[in-house]
Write a structure and sequence with these properties.
With 180 residues, the chain is mostly helical. It has seven helices and no strands.
Length: 180
């Protein structure tokens, strides 16, 4: 998709969905998802490299504000993951399934740098086979499913409604129902 300078409804929607999930589900849900990963990976196709880096820092600051860790770790982690993955977007087109796959890859890169940053700035980190399986393999898959269900499908549905022109579809459907 071409680079889009205009801020549209979909960008706000995915940002506020990410913010909602980060604020409310992070305290309730036992899994530690990377809540802003779908937002950033979707915007990879719509924004420049510099804008993505700024958005990564902002998403990280929001995540840091809801975290009990040293302030700035998540900002740095989002920044590093976005820095390494932005140029790799060329291997993925902007489609419903590729959003999920790219989010899973983003989550895996994020999870790889997470223990390094925690070791440098915050606390002792113990790496094990269990960590490798859960944080590098299983959690990115769950992040991809999260991106698919809560971001890719709603955006696909919104695009479909715009394409079909929902108002005309509703008027036609209403006439069919009430003519009987």
């Amino acid at each position: 998709m071409a680079q889009n300078k205009k801020i549209n409804f979909e960008n706000y929607l995915i940002f506020f969905l990410s913010l909602f999930f980060n604020a409310f589900l992070s305290s309730i849900f036992p899994l530690k998802l990377i809540y802003f990963a779908p937002f950033l990976t979707i915007l990879f196709y719509k924004n420049s490299f510099l804008n993505i880096l700024w958005l990564s820092v902002i998403c990280g600051l929001i995540t840091d504000s809801f975290s009990s860790s040293t302030f700035g770790i998540y900002s740095l982690n989002y920044l590093i993951a976005s820095f390494f993955l932005y140029r790799e977007k060329r291997f993925f087109n902007d489609s419903i399934i590729n959003t999920s796959i790219f989010t899973s890859i983003y989550a895996a890169i994020f999870s790889l740098f997470n223990p390094l940053l925690f070791f440098i700035f915050d606390k002792k980190v113990i790496l094990s086979i269990k960590w490798l399986i859960t944080d590098i393999i299983l959690m990115p898959i769950i992040d991809g499913i999260y991106a698919f269900l809560f971001f890719a499908l709603p955006l696909y549905f919104i695009a479909y409604i715009k394409k079909v022109d929902f108002k005309k579809l509703w008027i036609t459907y209403k006439k069919m129902i009430f003519q009987k």
